[in-house]
Amino acid sequence: MQVLVLPAAEVRPGRGGPASGPAGTAEVRLLTAHAAMVGRMLDRLGPAGVDAARGTLAELARAVAGGGLDDVEPLLSPALAQAARDLADRRLTDSALSPSVLARELNVSLRTLQRAFAREGRPLSTYIRRRRLEEACRELVASHRRMTVSEIAARWQFADSGHFARAFRKYYGRTPTDYAATAVRETDAA
């Protein structure tokens, strides 16, 4: 259970008392993702950033209390993007993972989710591909690795090992096999 304490006047104008509800709703996931992000960045925010974060928290809390989300509110974009990243990170090996699936799970339109990521300058599909490549890379260089490059490619949802090798080379500048061999040599030399 998570407890957030916000001024009642900002969350539920004219009504006092606590508001509670199921933690699995899209609104609550957005609120908790944004609260976590604000907690991590608060010491780096200036006065305008603190005001924006506070306003977004209040808007999300109103959505939780009122049971709805204003998906055109631009201040919600960072929280929506963070909630989508959190969900994607938990489902990277899922073959059904896509921006459409995440939008459905977050209870927003695909276009709303795309707008949230457009403000960051990188599409959600690019984020998913990059994270899958990063996780595949970790498995390639793991000292206890037991999977082949093809098995790693399949685990991280690449169509085939050739597709994986091209994407890997584009991102890391080397093929997966070369990258793993270099890592082994560096480990042995150390």
General description of the model:
This protein has 190 residues and is an all-alpha fold. The chain starts with 7 loop residues before the first helix and ends with a helix. Helix 4 crosses helix 6. The chain has ten helices and no strands. It has helices spanning 8-11, 26-41, 47-66, 77-90, 99-105, 110-118, 124-141, 149-155, 161-172, 176-189. It has two domains: 8-121, no CATH class; 128-189, Arc Repressor Mutant, subunit A.
Q: Determine the strand fraction and express it as a percent band.
A: under 5%
Number of helices: 10
What structural class is derived from the secondary structure elements?
mainly alpha
Mean of pLDDT: 81
The total number of structural domains is 2
CA-atom Rg in angstroms:
20 Å
Q: What ranges have pLDDT less than 50 throughout 5 or more consecutive residues?
A: none
Give the helices and strands, then pairings.
Layout: H1 8-11, H2 26-41, H3 47-66, H4 77-90, H5 99-105, H6 110-118, H7 124-141, H8 149-155, H9 161-172, H10 176-189
Helix pairs in contact: 2-3, 2-4, 4-6, 4-7, 5-6
Outline of the structure:
The protein is built from ten helices and no strands.
Task: Spell out the key features of this protein.
2 domains, 0% strand, mainly alpha, Arc Repressor Mutant, subunit A, single chain, 190 residues
